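Minutes, project huddle
Topic: does the predicted pose make sense with calcium ion bound?
PN asked that the exact inputs be recorded in the minutes so nobody has to dig through chat later. Recorded below.
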Amino acid sequence: MNAQDRQARLDAAVAAAREAGGVALAHFRDLGALTVESKGVQDLVSEADRETERVIKGRLTADFPDDAFVGEETGADRVDGERGTWVVDPIDGTQPFLLGLPTWCVSIAYVADDDMQVGVVYNPVTDDLYTAQRGGGATLNGKPMHVREVSSLSEGLTGMGCSSSTTPQQLGHIAEGLRAADGMYHRCGSGALTLAYVAAGQLIGYIEMHINAWDCLAALLLIEEAGGRANPFLAEHGVTGGGRIIAGAPGVYDKLTSLLPA
Ligand code: IPD
Ligand code: CA
Ligand code: CA
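Predicted holo structure (tokens), as shared on screen:
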């Protein structure tokens, strides 16, 4: 895709994230009015997730009617591998959101030519906006951001993600290896936001045995454009799949990989 089309997608993704983030934030300020449903073990959803996705999808499909769309709440729409695809998690970190904790975000990726082209992660509570476009670097609130220069897991915090797809044994193995390397874990309940923290140099890495494409594709581009390294998640799992993720500063990437259970 050309630079002009990429910039147009980035501008639209930022506008959609800010608008949808405002809708989600209004629900966040009035959590008692929401009916919460359970989708499974430690997996909640409410009308806030669905309404926020409707706002994003409505705006992006109006601006780019030929683009395909994958959203956590509405599923895949016209994904045929030929055209560009929006991959969206309207609220990543639904659990902290519903508990009144500030660590949740809107995540919007645009994928074309077999790669992430645009990535936007927006935390409406802190008003922090993380953006990247392929070949154009990554920014936090308009300023360039970079992964941290580290060579050991002891030099910072590593984000650990966990859902019901991770077994107790897998989680224990990773935690044991991290502690043995004098590392320390961080978990805030949002994979997308934690990955954005890695891109901004606030954390040094992220590891999770299973994450979905809509949780991570936007933030993976942030990390790549901020000088970090990640496993080829898109090539491995596509825009609708899920699997393990390892991402971080280049100096600790191999060390993060060695934490994975066999
Ligand atoms: C989850 C969060 C969590 C991660 C899970 C995701 P949700 O997304 O990102 O941090 O560990 O893998 O499914 O349910 O809050 O949108
Ligand atoms: Ca998610
Ligand atoms: Ca979600």
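Observations noted during the meeting:
- DSSP finds eight helices and 15 strands in the chain.
- The chain has a mean pLDDT of 95.
No decisions taken; revisit at the next huddle.
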